[in-house]
Amino acid sequence: MAHTSDRIAEDILGYLKSHETKSLLRFITCGSVDDGKSTLIGRLLFESKMIFEDQLAALEADSKRIGTQGEEIDFALLVDGLAAEREQGITIDVAYRFFSTDRRKFIVADTPGHEQYTRNMATGASTADVAILMIDARKGILTQTRRHSFIVSLLGIRHVVLAINKLDLVGYDRAVYEAIVEAYRDFAAPLDFASITPIPISALRGDNITDKSGETPWYHGPTLMAYLETVDIADDASGAPFRMPVQWVNRPDLDFRGFSGMIASGTLRPGDTVKSLPSSKSSTVKSIVTMGGDLAMATAGQSVTVTLDDEIDVSRGDVLCAANDPAPAADQFQATILWMNEQEMLPGRTYLMKTGATTAQATIATPKYAIDVNTMEHLAAKTLSLNEIGVCNLNLDRTIAFEAYGDNRAMGCFILIDRLSNETVGCGMIDFALRRASNIHRQALVVDKAARAELKGQKAVMLWFTGLSGSGKSTIANALEQKLLAMGRHTYILDGDNVRHGLNKDLGFTDADRVENIRRVSEVGRLMVDAGLITLVSFISPFRSERRMARQMMEEGEFVEVHVDTPLEIAEERDVKGLYKKARRGEIKNFTGIDSPYEPPLDPEIRLATTDQTPDEAADRLLAFLREKGYLA
Amino acid sequence: MTDLTHLQRLEAEAIHIFREVVAEADNPAMLYSIGKDSAVLLHVARKAFYPSPPPFPLVHVDTTWKFKAMYDFRERMAHESGMKLIVHTNQEGVAQGIGPFTHGSGVHTDIMKTVALKQALDIHKFDAAFGGARRDEEKSRAKERIFSFRTAAHRWDPKNQRPELWTLYNARKAQGESIRVFPLSNWTELDIWQYIYLEDIPIVPLYFAAPRPVVERDGMLIMVDDPARMRLHEGEEIVEKSVRFRTLGCWPLTGAIESEAATLPDVIREMLLTTTSERQGRMIDHDAAASMEKKKQEGYF
Q: Of A85, A146, A423, B27, which is least packed with CB atoms within 10 Å of its CB?
């Protein structure tokens, strides 16, 4: 076992030699609170001699003080990390543990076992080759066993160990063990695991962990450690076609231009023809450069720097592919998404999507359905909240090279980032590209925006009025439009209330509906600007994120954000439509400023304070701005 | 993938992390502590960007109490790597005469290391700092992310970490926030030694046994690196012993172990057969069980 002392003492060089060639196995342990997961990991560390004497002394002392095993060593204490968790007696996050034997180095992702932990488990599973599912022999298959199995399969783990624990507490009863195994195989059939290996164990007593237990003579399979040391995890990654997302362009001087990245799949040799996506330009590999000399071959999992024969344009985010078998590229996908943030997903909002070395803007559509992680049933859903999983379409602002997650984990995984908080709010797996985008070709039009605007003697622009209800947006917009009309200009007002009577009458006032409200009006506004109109949009539009989305739809200089800045007290005092009174009485829910937030613009083109100027004066100021910037020339 | 050995996979992962940070951060730096983990970190960084030199400076937070051999080695490695070396010392601490003998390990470490580190990051406005910490070092490290975010005040909030999936790292941050990045997170002490051996990476000679002048104090062997600054307690005697160090820091705070291991294989053999864990040689960790977590929340790397 492990660091066999005698061998190390006598033949350290031989020992080092054998350890140079060992492989790496990453696995995750899944179980609920009392299944003995921490005990099992502590036991594995102990048995592989990864615990030093001082740690063992501390462990013995801790076991007596706060342990749950009386005078016995409580192995769980070895792995319970943070102080807060120790006090609560549960682990609350993902922790990584390490041990090694002569054959393999192991990295264990240890995730907490309570209800709200889909997020942490997915994190641990995303890098794991094998999952150990802990089952308490006294309880059999529980709801959480099903949940864990589903998440493990969703994240693409192909091999699971069914560790049927606490067998000592059922008298090492073979019938109990076999009944659980049979029930699990029935349940797991649709999950498509490549292998399911049941092992009867007692983590506490050490049965079938490293040595065969005398208590289970009827069991003829491997011990847990023997399984972990020998399980074949050879996936198809090195046999699959070559893919490498370019992370960084290495350019020390004018003579050298290398493309650095980690090979996602396949192998690469000098002389191979590669194609860069999405540009589709091809070239031949000149060399694979490393500090220790050029390589004759590189394979999946290696981080390399590649030089090409031709000066083709390749930058961060592009993917080098085998030219004869390139990855597909698309800008619309169906994906399975796991939401990881307290703030629920807002369909229609634009998030950042990081995949490989690319970061694209992605708009997520309303989920097609959510999936109940306990029963795998499909449920109707308008959004996804923390720890929920659903299937959604995504629309990107650019074309990216990809593969379905089931075919290639590295090329099909992504994370979603909130553009304002910068938090990682979700993760996902690409199911397939939607063909829609490629089938609806844009009609090229001869008469363009500039021509239409020129005919009207103006430059098209969108003036976006944002502010609280009753701040004076529509009043000012009306005054401005009258003045423009008098000057013979071509205008249109998109007014929040009016649009909600027609185009958006199906939408309410939840955050998700507000986002969709703004998305639609932005699209309509864009068409009007395209028609050459001076377009006045008068919408409360409370969220920065959606106003930014509208801005990004437009070309530079076409979007003018006008913050009609009236303090809440004043707007409420005016209460032209009597809405604030109703909201205060609780008759209107989600009213901006009362029980729904308003995020004021940080850097608007124009800020109009309405307390010290009349609507007419405000309209004049806007007119002066339009003149000055050349929109009315 | 099975063709790769565990060290090849760990190296590839660390290189990937280095490149992601350089591609996404505005002003990265590498915290260089001159120890063996820093030696590996620097070596992997050079591999990641070869033939370019790593496109960031080395930052050494100097307490002025490091071993002389460490200073020599630092200059040599900065020269060999072609990287810019920035040395920062907390001058207020120097002015106040802060030192391990006069103020004890706690105050010394806080003022000359933790505070000094924050000063260095603030002065140079580094928004990402590579460090050589490993998850296997200590329990609170086991749950730290590879990309670990710090508030503008350099605080770490263990309850508010970003999920890290696959090899996709979210390096976005708000103005004033910074990231500590740990490319060697998944390495163990044995991996570090094995890699040093395999790649023939130069390390400070203090890791190898040699006759050195030492004093026994509180059960630790303290090497008299600078006789002029050494404060002997009553009854203490300087004796010459064959010793080496398992970890390097400020010489008055770092315990040596008696050893005859003068070559790398010998050192590794001793490491594998030893019965105490690595950090025991550091006085800083001899506090309560959760002390490292507390230190990290306060800004200790």
A: B27
